Amino acid sequence: MDIIAGDIGGTKSWLVWVKAKESVAETCFEQVYASADFPDAETLLQQFMADARQTVKPESVCLALPGPVQAGQPTRLTNLDWTLEKASLQTQLGARQLLFINDFQAAAQGISTLTTDGYVVLNVGETPEDEGQTCAITGAGTGLGLAWMQPQANGRYHTFATEGGHTDFAPANAQQERLLAFMRQRYPHVSWERLVSGPGVNQVYQFCLQDMTGEIPADLRERNGAIVNQAALAGDPVATAAMQLFTDLYANWVGNVALLYQPRGGLYLGGGISARIQPWLQTQRFLDACFDKGRMSDLARQMPIYLITNTRLGVQGALAAAMHHTMG
Ligand SMILES: Nc1ncnc2c1ncn2[C@@H]1O[C@H](COP(=O)(O)OP(=O)(O)OP(=O)(O)O)[C@@H](O)[C@H]1O
Q1: Does 167 lie in the same domain as 126?
Q2: What three-state secondary structure class fits 262?
Q3: What's the 126 CA to ligand 1 centre distance in angstroms?
Q4: Do 140 and 285 reside in the same domain of the chain?
Q5: What is the number of the ligand 1 atom nearest to the C-alpha of 66?
Q6: Which molecular-function annotation in GO is an example for this chain (predicted)?
Q7: Interface predicted TM-score of the whole assembly (ipTM), two decimals
């Protein structure tokens, strides 16, 4: 069976074409595209199908989408001006089956495909006595995703999407209170995603410029996450402060997820940014900020935390969802 699986992102879209027989999938074409190069998902998929040069139509297509996916409704992406309409896309693709799934729900499905070289342990936590423990996955990319999963008796996971990244940001100290005041001048609603994401790195950097130097020079306003991180590595003091504050915010968020879901089966950090800022996350300071939860600090500390280094997780998850859906 020919399957297309795709992890659509605000920045990049990762697509694979596989030939699946029973539970074995063989990849015959794989490509990553810059999402902004395409006006819509139809054009992206047309390009992918042309590039893949297959002689048949796909039987099944599964797209992991960054935004709330609701049955019977068009899916509007949160950080990309695309709206996907299932019936018309399915007709265009000529596929027997088209599945839309939230991108972090797909990543959650991808967890079971991870091998031990696909993640590193940030916090050992308390090893669960049985396998039947809740897991959660969150991660910064263009947005801030969050999903959780519950193991079932058949060894599979039941996965649940959330829009938790859009919950209200809450400052943890005086510096973050100043940050919140700064952000309120820019956004009517300051969510965690406004800060714990690639665009969030830029906001945090601008805040640090304002806070440390009293001004935000026009030529420094557009520095994206990668550039701020690079400048920090090169010793720039404002960029270093920004990456430190960003890491603290990420940790505070991860600690919130630890308490909300008590994911004793594992709290996984994914998204495009986590692996790229591994040296910032693999520190005692990150863990201390994760577990700075007052009377619940000891409880939060019990959760195992894993940093995912496998950059294909999203597309592996979309493929796992497609295989599960079509082959049971
Ligand atoms: N080294 C880095 N440090 C910090 N941020 C980075 C780094 N490299 C890239 N980024 C930021 O990561 C974001 C892209 O993340 P990602 O690769 O997860 O894209 P995506 O999968 O399209 O996102 P999403 O799935 O959240 O829509 C961009 O905003 C970019 O500026």
Answers
A1: yes
A2: coil
A3: 31
A4: yes
A5: 27
A6: glucokinase activity
A7: 0.96
Residues 80 and 44 in one domain: yes
Ligand 1, atom 28: nearest CA belongs to which residue?
Answer: 198
pLDDT more than 90, % of the chain: 92
Q: Would you list the DSSP string of 11-26?
A: SEEEEEEEEEETTEEE
- Positions of the chain with pLDDT lower than 50, given as ranges: none
Query: Ligand 1 pocket, 204 CB below 6 A?
Result: no
Residue 44 and residue 127 share a domain: no
Of the candidates 285, 297, 215, 213, the one whose C-alpha atom is nearest the C-alpha of residue 243 is 285
Q: Is the CB of 165 under 6 A from ligand 1?
A: no
Please give the full DSSP string across 57-124, using - where no structure is assigned: --SEEEEEESS---TTSPEEPSSSS-EE-HHHHHHHHT-SEEEEEEHHHHHHHHGGG--GGGEEEEE-
CATH number, domain of 162, equals 3.40.367.20
Verify that 317 and 181 share a domain, yes or no.
no
Tell me, using a 6 A CB cutoff, whether residue 203 lines ligand 1.
Answer: no
103: domain range?
2-109+312-327
- pLDDT value for 64: 98
Ligand 1 centroid vs 11 CA: distance in angstroms? 7
Q: Are 279 and 246 in contact (CB under 8 A)?
A: no
Token pair, residue 70, equals 């609701």
Do 47 and 138 lie in one domain? The reply is no
When divided into structural domains, the chain yields a total of 2
122/239 same-domain check: yes
Please count the other Cβ atoms lying within 10 Å of the Cβ belonging to residue 89: 19
Which protein residue has the closest C-alpha to ligand 1 atom 29?
198
